[in-house]
Structures are given as structure tokens and as C-alpha cells.
């Protein structure tokens, strides 16, 4: 996935998102990635979609307070009710141009109706 694509989400990491050493919590990053991939899933499903699984994540680089974090999410598979979205998180230090990938994962979502029951993903 290229960083030249439009990100699903872009935010700046703040002190409230970090541990005592200034590294951003992994859970905060996972939540951001879930939100970004969820936007892609909801758009494709044309309605509510919920996370059902995330494959293993490896944190390759730390994210620091002040870093700009961009989440890129790409739909890679659509089933009858489910969608798989490849998601990457990239960091760019506040006063630099170079960015680097910090983690990636595949998120699986299921389209659901108003009662939370699985429903078919709308055909394009």
C-alpha cells in the first residue's frame, strides 16, 4: 500500500495517548486502525459493519508524542456478509517529511442490520 494514497484517517498523537516514556499506547494505535478500516467497511457495506477479527500485529517502530499518524485501509476481499481490509499505520515525525510504516494488520468486518444480525454486503 502506498503512502501516496489518501489515508482513511490522519491524526496527531498527543501526550494523553502515551506511556511515561512518550511512546504511544499500542491499544490507541489499534483503535485508530479499527476506526480507519471501519470507515472503509461501512462505505462498502452501505451501512453498519462490525469488527469480528484482527490478525496478528507486530509493532515495528514506536509512535511518539507529536507524530502525525496516517492509517491506510484497502478492501482486499468481500464475502457474502464479510469484508477483509488490509490496514497500515504510518508515522511522520512532526517536523520531517519522511514517513515510515509502524504496523499493519488485516481486519475482518461483518455487515449487520439494525438488530446486529449479519446481512449480505450490498452488491456494487
Description:
The chain is α+β, with helices and mostly antiparallel strands. The chain has a single domain, classed as Hotdog Thioesterase (Thiol Ester Dehydrase, Chain A, Roll), CATH 3.10.129. The chain has one helix at residues 26-45, and strands spanning 9-12, 49-54, 68-78, 82-92, 100-111. It has a five-stranded antiparallel beta sheet with strand order 1-3-4-5-2, with helices on one face. Strand 3 and strand 4 form a beta hairpin. The longest helix has 20 residues, at 26-45. It is elongated and about 45 Å long.
Profile the largest sheet.
5 strands, antiparallel
User: C-alpha Rg, in Å?
Assistant: 15 Å
Helical segment count: 1
In total, the number of strands is 5
Question: Would you tell me the overall average pLDDT?
Answer: 93
Global shape:
elongated
Q: Uncertain spans, ≥5 residues at pLDDT below 50?
A: none
**How far apart are the termini?**
23 Å
